Amino acid sequence: QVQLVESGGGLVQPGGSLRLSCAASGSVFSIAPMGWYRQAPGNQREWVAGITRGGSTDYTDSVKGRFTISRDNAKNTVYLQMNSLKPEDTAVYYCKHHRTGSWGQGTQVTVSS
Question: Residue 84: pLDDT above 70?
Fold first, then answer.
């Protein structure tokens, strides 16, 4: 099992930026694909972005060109840089370790003026 801890959420105005981090314990981090997901109130959890162990990335259409996922295997950390944030990006954001299926506890992102 891998333990994941997200951080970096908060309140930001529309058009602003946030950088989320997901720190992982354990030695299996570097060999696993990772993903960011989000869940808004009343909605199902949805996939936002993914990164392979080699660094290839993919995004859901609604965040393409605004969000960037990256990883630092030496630090066992995956990041989500979020720019040009919109109110509809408001959600709890979770990271997932795709090899073990482990989830973090989530971090709240609120985009509001």
Answer: yes
